[in-house]
Write a structure and sequence with these properties.
Radius of gyration: 21 Å
CATH architecture of the largest domain: 3-Layer(aba) Sandwich
CATH superfamily of the largest domain: DD-peptidase/beta-lactamase superfamily
Strand content: 15-25%
Number of strands: 16
Number of helices: 15
Number of domains: 2
Helix content: 25-40%
Structural class: alpha+beta
Mean pLDDT: 92
Amino acid sequence: MGEFRKQAGRWFGAAAMALCVMAPSAAQAQDAPRSAALSETRIERLHAYLRQATDAHGYLGAVSLVMRDGRIVDWQAYGSRDLARREPIRRDDIFRIYSMTKTVTSVAVMMLVEEGRLSLEDPLSRYLPGFDAPQLMTGGTADAPVLRPASKPITLHALLTHTAGFPAGLKGDEEANKRMERLDPHGSHNLREFAERMSHVALAADPDTRFGYDGASIELMARVVEVVSKQPFDRFLQQRIFAPLKMTDTGFSVPVAQRQRIVDLTTMSDNGTLVLADTLSARHPGEPLNAYPSGAGGLYATAGDYARFAQMLLNGGTLDGVQLLSRKSVELMMRNHLTMLDPPVTQFSDAEGFGIGGYVVIDAARRGQLGSNGQYGWSGAASTYYTIDPQEKLVAILLLQHLPRDGVKDLPHVSRLFYNLVYQSLP
């Protein structure tokens, strides 16, 4: 791989080489686009914006990648990978993608659905012990809770769509959150232990009555994948998704020999300067983000790898002759599943519903940014973003490594402008 990194104008890394079949040419991907898929002059607005966003007063660095009609039409790197700003970032550098992992986990689940090994409407208790009689906390305190039986079982569908009712930091969840924190499910050593601890957590709402975004639901789905497939979750992803898609730089840890490619993870200090975040993976890049393979947020990846995954979904479940899902399964993933709610939207936007693994735009005009109805995607905690737009046959990815903080003057959010600048470049 070192040879590729030394040769200007060539694809960076094995993942990028695999993408070559969908790209116009190495030179066109490296430089400004020469394709009718984007306006060459208008995409320069995006380049100028990201150069400014990663200057000496901004983010360390960023990698952006845009695909249209199955081809890479723009792939750029900006700024630095290290806090000292000495090492230029490269297009094949490695990022902690956190919650963008959830879409990968959702694909793993849908693969098992297609094989007839589980159903979305199955109760969680069919696969994991301790969930046959979920309790709902209706009042009291963490020390003296008032409980009643939940109105219905927790289904796999409820977990995937964040409607299971687990404490999710919403108003009214405070005491239920305290009880869950005492059980410390995220301190578990493996997914089996995580599920066992979660089986003692009281719900904050009845299943299917609200959207409450949480990581615990998807960790439980990762455990279901282990139980049904009889494989460790990380091995299932490697054998069934990453290897077939040639996602060679994606995993729950990074080989020691490749760790120099990991971008530093920053946050804003109290005095307004960028510092390394206080996390294990910031202090020891490449180490697992959790003690267990986190289906909710544990993956490292490159822009090139995730582009292959996203293009597979845009293609209806196939890429380069490899089929992971059927077209109908992908269509189901990209539909709004919150129709049982009124309004059928997430806690984050009154213009977005939620599918399986990501948001679904249901009112592009109300959303107030350029895009399309039916657009699908998600983001990660450290400022990573992707979207898939079936109407425009578009994939857009932006990867940075910064954990935002409340209560300080932090760096401005970039996703809304990023997407506007991508969409304004479409002919």
